[in-house]
Amino acid sequence: MNRKIEIVGVPEHFNLPWHLALDEGAFQQRGINLEWTDVPEGTGRMVELLNSGKADLAILLTEGYVRAVSEGLEAIIVQEYIATPLLWGVHVNAKSTYTTQAELVNKRAAISRYGSGSHLMAFVHAKHMAWPADALEFEVINTLDGAVQALREERADYFMWEKFTTQPLVDQGVFRRVGVCPTPWPCFVIVARADFARDEAGLLSDLLEIINGYTSEFKLIPSIDRTLSNHYKQTLPDIREWLSLTRWSQEQLNIEVLEKVSDTLNELNLLSNKMPIENMLWKPSGL
Q1: Confidence class of residue 177 from pLDDT cuts 50, 70 and 90?
Q2: In which domain, by residue range, is 128 found?
C-alpha cells in the first residue's frame, strides 16, 4: 500500500463522486490510500492546508487557485474538475430591507477568508455591477454558519455562496437571494502540490483515471438525484436543476480559460504576481 494521500474539498454536492469512489474502495483496489477531509471554510482554508503540507490534493475554485499561486502557493492544476460555471447567489438577511443587488453598493460583504471564492467573486460581482471595487469592505466569517450569524447581527450586509448550497436557507427564510453572479469560467479544478505531482506522477495518473470513471458516469447512476437530495438536504427539483446545469470534466483545463481567469484577476488588482500560465498546468511525462 502506498503512503496515505490527503485530499481536501468542500462538503458540497459537486464532490459526491469522490465519496462514492471511496465508499466502494475504488482507490484501495489500485493501491491508493486516499483520505478525504471536508473543509467547509472553502478554498482559502484549503490553500493554507496545501501550503503547510497537510494536504496533497485539493478541489479548488479556479480563481482561488490562480490568486493563491500569485501569493506563492507551489501547486499545479492536474485537471479541470467542473467544466461549467459556479452560480454564486447574492444573499442578504431575510429580515433586512435589501431587495435588490443595486442597494448593496458600498455595503460590507461577508467572506469565508481572504483569497477565498467569496472574497474574489465579490470583486467580479462589483465589476459586473459597475461598482467601485476599491470601496469593497469585508467581514471574515469562516463558514456558512458564520455568514448566517454575521448577517443576522448586521456585521455584514450580504454574502455570496453557491446558490444551491444556500437554497435550504432561502427556503427557511434565513436568507433572501437578491441576485446570482455566475463565474465567467469553469469553476473547480483538481490541484496538487508541486512536489507531489512531480514525485507521484504515476499514482496521480491512476487516481485521475479512477475519478474520471466515476464523474463520466455520475449522472447515469440510478436515482442519483434522490441520493443527492437526501445527502445534501435539498429538494428534488433543485437537485435536478443543478444536475442539468453541471458538467464534470475529464480533461485538462484549457490554457485560454486559465489566461482569462488570470487576466481578470489581474485587472481587478487581485494578483501579487502574474505567473506564467504554462507553469500552472500539469504535464505528465511522456505526454
Answers
A1: very high
A2: 87-182
Number of domains in the chain: 2
* DSSP-derived secondary structure letter, 82: E
- The helices-and-strands tally (H runs, E runs) of the chain is 11, 10
Q: pLDDT by residue (tens digit) across 126-142?
A: 999 999 988 899 999 99
Q: How many CB atoms lie within 10 A of CB 222?
A: 7
In this structure, are strands 87-93 and 175-182 parallel, antiparallel, or unpaired?
antiparallel
Residue 246, C-alpha cell as written in the block? 453541471
Instruction: For residue 12, count other CB atoms closer than 10 A to its CB.
Output: 17
Q: What is the pTM of this model?
A: 0.94
Q: Is residue 285 part of a domain?
A: no
H/E stretch holding 33: strand 33-38
Amino acid at 10: V
Instruction: Give the CATH number for residue 122.
Output: 3.40.190.10
pLDDT band at 180 (very low <50, low <70, confident <90, very high): very high
Domain boundary among 182, 206, 224: 182
Angle at CA of residue 272, ends 179 and 147, nearest 5°: 35
Query: Which residues on adjacent β-strands are paired with residue 198?
Result: none
**What are the start-end ranges of the E strands in 70-132?**
75-82, 87-93, 108-111
Sequence-separated (6 or more) residues with CB below 8 Å from residue 169 = 91, 144, 148, 175
- Give the mean model confidence (pLDDT) for residues 177-196: 97
42's torsion region: left (phi>0), alpha (psi -120 to 50) or beta?
left
Cβ proximity of 157 and 217 under 8 Å: no
Query: Which residue, of 182, 201, 230, is where some domain finishes?
Result: 182
Nearest to 264 by CA among 252, 253, 246, 277: 277
